[in-house]
What we know:
By secondary structure, the protein is an alpha+beta fold. The chain has a single domain, classed as Trna Endonuclease, Chain: A, domain 1 (3-Layer(aba) Sandwich). Helices cover about 30% and strands about 35% of the residues. The chain is built from two helices and five strands, in the order αβββαββ. The longest helix is centred in the middle third of the chain and has 17 residues.
Amino acid sequence: MLDRGRHGERLAERHLRRRGWTVLARGWRGGGGEIDLVAARGRVLALCEVKARSRPVTARQRARIVRAASAWLARRPPPPGTEVRLDLVTVLVGDGRPVVRHLPGALGDGG
Length: 111
């Protein structure tokens, strides 16, 4: 079976796709960090951190995500007028159905 993090990322991806997002990348590494999911919908580009545990995103983790996001944007600049966000997707898996929440902009400004 998949580890909790990978399983959470798959559930998060499915959640976003069902809501009209196009997933552009999974587990992208660069700038000394990782972006779990990069997704686009309309004129919005969301660089997403997926949390499948109840622990909050630490300042150190956020700094790595921001560095990775900056590296992504440097290599793939979005078209003018694109809203770039650092989103959080939480996945709670218990005895019942998984609960997935997409929190737009929860990690601050994407640049």
